[in-house]
């Protein structure tokens, strides 16, 4: 495996890690796979795009706007689509159906807003590639990798070292007991949605820069789901490991068998994990989760 392929794979895997981590945060607290996450990613990326076009702002303010928009929309989504289901403590199937419906609503809003067209972010970098020691690295890939690593490190520190993080872990483990211990359960769930939405905004901007913006961009959330399955549903560290592995595998497949076969092998790998090791690499117990 050449160093060039590894670098490209790590850059791709870092964005998948953002998607998978946002996915895992919600899975941890409410025990369901939030399939509206992809459409939220698209909606917040488009908000960042139109702000950048209207104001001429650089990359960092645009990322900040997208993350803020993603977090706020996720908060509203939690209240509208999931709050009553959480209070009634009903079957996870209702969460699943509600998340698909909410995702369809987000996607519909984007389609009505921008139409079926494709959009490109303004050029944020003076040079599109960086060359060193015979290697050629896309500037956007490098910035994407560095930004993703910083975001994920901050997230881990937040979860491990702060009171909010401890509350999040308590609610993830046992919501009822956490409530009896005085933890604001719904406030903590809202905090998880806020973080997840912000990560969706960050991932959406980088996907828009690297590829192109279109209403169905959120379909890439499937890659985050596959990464979560490989790493272990509900495990944030497992989601990151699974995402990096998926990025490396996809880059290898694109180089050696072509881009058309890469998605097929990705699904095969996920099916193998579900059949052979359903708990994923991190070994999370998924027996009572949907």
From TrEMBL:
InterPro entries: ABC_transp_permease, BCAA_transport_permease. It is a multi-pass membrane protein. The keyword Cell membrane applies. One of its GO terms (cellular component) is plasma membrane. Signal peptide: none annotated. The gene is livH_4. It comes from Oxobacter pfennigii. The keyword Cell membrane applies. This is High-affinity branched-chain amino acid transport system permease protein LivH. GO terms for biological process: amino acid transport. GO terms for molecular function: transmembrane transporter activity. It is found in: Cell membrane. Belongs to the binding-protein-dependent transport system permease family. LivHM subfamily. It holds the Pfam family BPD_transp_2.
């Amino acid at each position: 495996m050449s160093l060039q392929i590894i670098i490209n794979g790590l850059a791709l895997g870092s964005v998948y890690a953002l998607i998978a981590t946002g996915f895992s945060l919600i899975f941890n607290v409410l025990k369901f796979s939030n399939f509206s996450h992809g459409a939220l990613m698209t909606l917040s990326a488009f908000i960042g795009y139109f702000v950048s076009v209207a104001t001429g702002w650089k990359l960092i303010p645009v990322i900040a706007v997208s993350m803020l928009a993603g977090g706020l929309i996720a908060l509203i989504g939690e209240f509208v689509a999931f709050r009553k289901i959480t209070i009634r403590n009903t079957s996870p199937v209702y969460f699943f159906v509600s998340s698909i419906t909410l995702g369809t609503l987000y996607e519909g809003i984007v389609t009505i807003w921008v139409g079926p067209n494709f959009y490109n972010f303004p050029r944020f970098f003076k040079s599109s590639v960086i060359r060193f020691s015979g290697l050629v690295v896309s500037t956007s890939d490098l910035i994407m990798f560095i930004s993703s690593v910083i975001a994920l490190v901050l997230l881990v520190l937040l979860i491990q070292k702060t009171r909010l993080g401890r509350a999040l872990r308590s609610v993830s483990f046992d919501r009822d007991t956490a409530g009896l211990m005085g933890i604001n359960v719904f406030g903590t769930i809202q905090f998880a949605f806020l973080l997840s939405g912000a990560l969706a905004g960050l991932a959406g901007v980088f996907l828009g820069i690297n590829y192109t913006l279109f209403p169905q961009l959120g379909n890439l959330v499937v890659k985050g789901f596959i990464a979560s399955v490989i790493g272990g549903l509900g495990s944030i560290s497992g989601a990151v490991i699974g995402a990096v592995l998926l990025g490396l595998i996809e880059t290898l497949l694109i180089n050696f068998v072509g881009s058309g076969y890469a998605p097929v092998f990705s699904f095969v790998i996920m099916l193998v994990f579900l059949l052979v090791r359903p708990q994923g690499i991190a070994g999370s117990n998924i027996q009572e989760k949907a």
